[in-house]
Amino acid sequence: MYRYFLGIKYKFNGNSIQEGYDCITLVSAVAKAHNIYIPNVNHQNHTINTFAPIFKDEIASGRWIEVEKQPLVAVVFRIAGKIQHIGFMIDDERFIHILQDSNVTIEKLSNPNWNKRVVGFYTYKAEK
After folding, report:
1. Is 123 exposed, middle or buried (0-12, 13-18, 19+ CB in 10 A)?
2. What is the DSSP string of 30-97?
3. How many CA atoms lie within 13 A of 121 on its CB side?
4. Percent residues over pLDDT 70 in the chain
5. Looking at the DSSP assignment, which residues form a beta bridge with residue 83?
6. Is the pTM here over 0.70, yes or no?
7. 3-class DSSP state for residue 116?
8. 30-83 confidence digits (pLDDT tens)
9. Which domains can be identified in the chain, with CATH numbers?
């Protein structure tokens, strides 16, 4: 199932395999493939170009809650001092994600480059 997404190109606010994805739209698409609804907060906040304020507002709203590390939850990362990246856990150790100027890939969370940047694991609760 995840191989379906591998190699797809980066596109800010992209929302299809043909167009590409960014990290948030990819998480939404992968979750949807598992019948989990995660809204694309990029599209709800067109004028905000960084992930940190979007996710801070989402957490404060109660729509996202922190959970234990497990498959099928989002993993949030701090890069360059800011919360600005999200991936989707596909098992206990690997996550799928995409970075700007890159393609969709699967990586191990145990990689020190990623492990030291983990902020937490989150699931989408519901609209409040």
Report:
1. middle
2. HHHHTT-----HHHH-TT--SHHHHHHHHHHHTSEEEE-S-TTSEEEEEETTEEEEEEEE-SSSEEEE
3. 17
4. 87
5. 78
6. yes
7. coil
8. 999 999 888 776 655 544 445 666 677 777 788 888 999 999 999 999 888 888
9. 2-124 (3.90.1720.10)
